[in-house]
């Protein structure tokens, strides 16, 4: 019985997507909780070391198979690791020293839209219809992001006064 439930859980995207969001949000809340106690670089290092060690048993067979390709592409792998993993997470943890976990999560929720914009700006890549459909949801999320950052809604006193909920750490993201 248990095996069937687990198999169904792993064979559908929705629980995995929800789990990914839950773990990412937990990461940011934990990062905010230890802000000022653990240096951001240390926190990023141990986060990714732990993730690597947890994923290694599941990925080992594929890593061995792809090792020749990874070796040939090591400069690109290094660049992606330095910018996409090390720097981004370290900057997220730095920002948590100066802003709220909610602001970090809201800014990070706009990343799919930012990726579409940069792909167009840098490479002239126009989103496919499928990406644009996702982009519409992302744009809607971005609109909600702006509304929330303006004070939580149209009827709120913060939104009416035009007072924004920005902090120094928001600029790091």
Write structural notes for this entry.
With 173 residues, this protein is mostly helical. The chain has one domain (16-172). The protein contains eight helices and no strands. The protein has helices at 2-10, 13-33, 40-72, 74-95, 101-109, 111-123, 129-149, 157-161. 10% of the residues are buried. Residues 153-162 have low confidence and may be disordered.
What can be said about this structure in brief?
The chain contains eight helices and no strands.
Index terms:
single chain, 173 residues, mainly alpha, 8 helices, 77% helix, globular
Query: From the alpha-carbon coordinates, what is the Rg to the nearest angstrom?
Result: 19 Å
Tally the beta strands. Answer: 0
* Biggest β-sheet strands, sense, barrel: none
SS-derived structural category: mainly alpha
Determine the fraction of residues in helical runs and give it as a percent range: over 70%
Morphology call: globular
Give the rounded overall mean pLDDT: 79
Beta-strand percent range = under 5%
Order of helices and strands: HHHHHHHH
Give unreliable regions as ranges. 153-162
Number of domains: 1
Query: What is the terminal separation in angstroms?
Result: 45 Å
Number of helices: 8
């Amino acid at each position: 019985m248990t095996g069937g439930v687990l198999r169904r859980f792993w064979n559908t995207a929705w629980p995995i997507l929800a789990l990914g969001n839950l773990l990412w949000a937990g990461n940011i809340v934990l990062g905010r909780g230890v802000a000022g106690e653990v240096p951001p670089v240390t926190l990023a290092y141990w986060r990714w070391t732990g993730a690597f060690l947890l994923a290694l048993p599941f990925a080992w067979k594929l890593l061995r198979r792809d090792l020749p390709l990874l070796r040939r592409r090591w400069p690109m792998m290094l660049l992606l690791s330095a910018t996409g993993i090390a720097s981004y997470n370290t900057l997220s943890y730095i920002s948590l020293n100066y802003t709220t976990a909610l602001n970090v999560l809201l800014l990070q929720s706009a990343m799919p839209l930012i990726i579409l914009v940069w792909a167009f700006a840098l490479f002239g890549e126009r989103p496919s219809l499928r990406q644009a459909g996702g982009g519409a949801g992302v744009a809607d999320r971005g609109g909600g992001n702006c509304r929330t950052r303006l004070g939580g809604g149209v009827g709120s006193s913060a939104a009416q006064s035009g007072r924004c909920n920005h902090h120094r750490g928001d600029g790091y993201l």
